[in-house]
Inverse folding.
């Protein structure tokens, strides 16, 4: 038996050991969620083992486009990201905040009955680790703590995966969020498939990760394996599908609320809100209060909402943002500019989901680049006549 | 001053309706007292989230403090399902309340100078506790002016307070209406037009403005025109608030969350977006 | 500086007018007093003067069938009452009634207009004072039209 694994050290494991890891997590009571192939997309769902993973599949992504095709190997993680992100577990789409019961002429509040499951998030990409860290700032690290989020987050076990392929819409390198997972995980995998076989380089990110690793078969990673893992990430970094120039982006966007370019994107945008639903950092919600028909009980439910809906900005008398132009501007400016003022970090992680799942293929990187060119060229609304 | 509600700002506490005053038309003023314990302290300009059981919750500014009885006073206009339910309560009914939230008026910064309050319609409600504070600490302030615009003489909010505020010329309170009737002896016209008629030292004045956004834009223009520096003007903004604690994202106004960074905001900090549509 | 010149100088409209020009205006000006309820002018009458309010409140009204006056604006201390004297046919469009005892400086319109014709510098200096006041009043009137305080149901 080798020495006890420590945070920061690299080990090497076989696929069978990865199955053993999943089994151990299940024994520990974790609800394990990871990538599965459903409805021609890779989505995160409950998994029992390696058989549930989309082995041998990859995705082809472009603006408004996502398809799965076979790979010529059996890689477990040979794809980028699909429509789901991990926020559906840590910041669920529908969440009961409290229930209340009529109590004579008053009422009393009770906590929601079901305690949150302890999640093991299996196969978290670097961009999504950053997204989780960003939502931590929103829900956990501000003046008001969302206790339910903080509880789910505290009890979660995270197994990251360094990306072996760059998707056609990926630009994590531009956002400084990937493709290598460098923090925020318990264990991080790099999948290696070569003449030496199918195996995983495994890095330890926490004491909990180290403790779990100690219970599965592992060997010290060879220098060759460490180099191979580095090469995998470098190759991915060199093949980003997209690029976003972030230099001066906050000032650029905050200085251009009236730019005619917003009208151009508004002419294409359907205001469907898909981008906000697939975005791993979009956190906005609505709060609904429901009462039972006999008036004896009530509950407050929080659901994901989108700044693209008319209702989002409704104040008595009407909505503040009635035009698609203003709603797209709100989303993009919040994501890439205001977010930095609010949370000290950009709200974009470069995952490219909003590009793939936009029904009309609006590309956030292209919108930013076009706006930048237009602003730098001094284009303004209106025409000059001779 | 942040509320403490079992450590969970999502959960309303039960308050009892102690008094219901019908102001006019669809506007009522409620006095709410906590069921057990004391209400949390508040600053004039802050708001509470009021909950009608099973119907929903609305952000309502605090318009008074229930003199020694440990409650909050709120003025509500029936505009939607929630405000309709809240405006229809009777004495003794239970409602939910969480708060107070947000930033209030700069009453300590305003000390030793003049104050100009500019209010339009129900915008007088969040200024009322500020006016009361100034009266309680009258010697800390110099000239105090209230310019109040309302629709017509029948929509005079807090009419009974005006006499008290004016007593001994403690507050120079001027009311103007959009539409007058034959009996009206006061001013007619938009409230920003009262600014040039008021007496204050613009460089030593703190202006506090609350009303519909359009009215606030005009009022700020009048105050700037009168020589009041942008950093001495404060406005109370309104956006859709659901959580009141900066988590739901709905009340964003540029980089600010109105629930957390407002509702009272220093004008120079919002000037660049003040006139931009649909922000 | 005589009394009327000093009164003009006290009014915000002429606070920074050149001395020579102030004297020219003063030649057309006199102080007047209106008791509460007295009319400064009536709709349809010749717009032969304008009024600078020194103290008091003036109500502008239109009259409608049934004898009901529609009071749409009040003008107070430091403001100017009357614009129709500037544009032909120099007829008042509304009634102006003193709401309270009101002290004004009344400026003879024909006297001032004839000085404008011969002294464009004076005309320009006064127009740059009249126009902002009237534009601001136009803005305020628009705001008043919005009926902002009625709430969405109204």
């Amino acid at each position: 038996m080798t020495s006890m694994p420590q945070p920061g050290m690299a080990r090497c494991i076989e696929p069978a050991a990865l199955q053993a890891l999943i089994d151990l997590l299940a024994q520990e009571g974790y609800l394990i969620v990871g990538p599965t192939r459903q409805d021609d997309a890779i989505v995160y769902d409950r998994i029992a083992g390696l058989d549930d993973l989309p082995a041998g599949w990859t995705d082809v992504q472009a603006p408004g486009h996502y398809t799965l095709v076979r790979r010529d190997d059996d890689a477990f993680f040979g794809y980028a990201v699909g429509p789901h992100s991990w926020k559906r577990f840590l910041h669920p789409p529908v969440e009961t905040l409290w229930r209340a019961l009529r109590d004579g002429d008053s009422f009393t509040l009770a906590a929601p009955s079901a305690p949150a499951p302890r999640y093991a998030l299996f196969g978290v990409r670097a961009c999504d680790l950053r997204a989780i860290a960003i939502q931590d700032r929103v829900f956990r690290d501000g003046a008001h703590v969302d206790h339910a989020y903080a509880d789910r987050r505290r009890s979660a076990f995270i197994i990251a995966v360094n990306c072996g392929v760059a998707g056609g819409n990926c630009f994590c390198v531009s956002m400084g969020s990937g493709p290598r997972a460098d923090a925020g995980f318990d264990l991080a995998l790099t999948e290696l498939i070569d003449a030496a076989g199918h195996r995983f380089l495994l890095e330890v990110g926490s004491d909990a990760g180290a403790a779990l690793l100690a219970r599965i078969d592992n060997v010290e990673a060879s220098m060759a394996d460490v180099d191979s893992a580095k090469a995998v990430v470098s190759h991915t970094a060199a093949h980003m599908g997209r690029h976003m120039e972030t230099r001066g982006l906050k000032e650029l966007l905050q200085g251009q609320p009236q730019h005619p370019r917003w009208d151009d994107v508004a002419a294409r945008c359907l205001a469907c809100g898909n981008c906000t639903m697939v975005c791993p950092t979009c956190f906005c919600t609505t709060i609904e209060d429901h009462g039972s028909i006999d008036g004896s009980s009530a509950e407050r439910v929080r659901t994901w909402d989108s700044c693209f809906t008319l209702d989002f900005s409704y104040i008595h008398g009407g909505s503040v943002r009635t035009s698609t132009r203003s709603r797209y501007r709100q989303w993009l400016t919040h994501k890439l500019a205001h977010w930095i003022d609010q949370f000290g970090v950009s709200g974009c992680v470069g995952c490219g989901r909003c590009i793939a799942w936009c029904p009309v293929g609006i590309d956030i990187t292209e919108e930013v680049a076009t706006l930048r060119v237009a602003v730098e060229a001094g284009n303004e609304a209106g025409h000059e006549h001779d | 001053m942040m509320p403490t509600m079992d450590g969970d700002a999502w959960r309303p506490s039960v308050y009892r309706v102690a008094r219901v005053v019908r102001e006019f038309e669809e506007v009522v003023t409620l006095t709410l007292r906590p069921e057990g314990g004391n209400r949390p302290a508040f600053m004039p300009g802050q708001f509470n989230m009021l909950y009608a059981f099973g119907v929903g919750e609305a952000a309502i500014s605090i318009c008074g403090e229930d003199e020694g009885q440990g409650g909050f006073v709120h003025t509500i206009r029936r505009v939607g399902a929630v405000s309709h339910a809240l405006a229809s309560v009777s004495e003794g009914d239970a409602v939910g309340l969480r708060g107070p939230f947000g930033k209030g008026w700069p009453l300590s910064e305003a000390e030793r100078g003049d104050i100009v309050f500019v209010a339009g319609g129900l915008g007088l409600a969040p200024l009322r506790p500020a006016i009361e504070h100034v009266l309680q600490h009258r010697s800390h302030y110099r000239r105090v002016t209230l310019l109040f615009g309302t629709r017509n003489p029948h929509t005079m909010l807090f009419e009974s307070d005006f006499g008290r505020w004016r007593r001994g010329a403690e507050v120079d309170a001027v009311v103007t209406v959009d539409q007058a009737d034959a009996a009206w002896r006061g001013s007619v016209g938009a409230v920003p037009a009262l600014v040039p008629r008021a007496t204050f030292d613009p460089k030593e004045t703190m202006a506090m403005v609350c009303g519909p956004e359009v009215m606030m834009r005009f009022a700020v223009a009048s105050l700037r025109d009168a020589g009041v520096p942008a950093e001495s003007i404060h406005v109370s903004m309104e956006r859709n608030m659901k959580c009141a604690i900066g988590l739901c994202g709905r009340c964003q106004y540029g980089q600010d969350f109105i629930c957390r960074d407002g509702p009272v905001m220093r004008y120079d900090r919002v000037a660049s977006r003040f006139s931009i549509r649909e922000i | 500086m005589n009394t009327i010149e000093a009164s003009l100088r006290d009014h915000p409209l002429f606070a920074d007018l050149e001395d020579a020009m102030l004297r020219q205006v003063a030649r057309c000006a006199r102080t007047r007093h209106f008791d509460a309820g007295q009319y400064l002018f009536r709709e349809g009458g010749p717009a032969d003067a304008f009024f600078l309010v020194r103290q008091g409140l003036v109500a502008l009204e239109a009259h409608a069938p049934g004898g009901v006056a529609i009071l749409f604006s009040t003008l107070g201390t430091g403001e100017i009452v009357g614009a129709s004297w500037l544009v032909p046919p120099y007829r008042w469009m509304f009634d102006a009634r003193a709401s309270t005892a009101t002290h004004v400086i009344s400026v003879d319109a024909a006297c001032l207009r004839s000085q404008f014709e011969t002294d464009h510098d004076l005309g320009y200096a006064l127009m740059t004072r009249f126009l902002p006041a009237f534009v601001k009043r136009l803005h305020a009137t628009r705001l008043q039209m919005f009926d902002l305080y009625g709430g969405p149901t109204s």
Remarks:
- The helical segments of chain B are 81-87, 124-136, 159-166, 213-225, 258-261, 267-274.
- The longest helix of chain B spans residues 124-136.
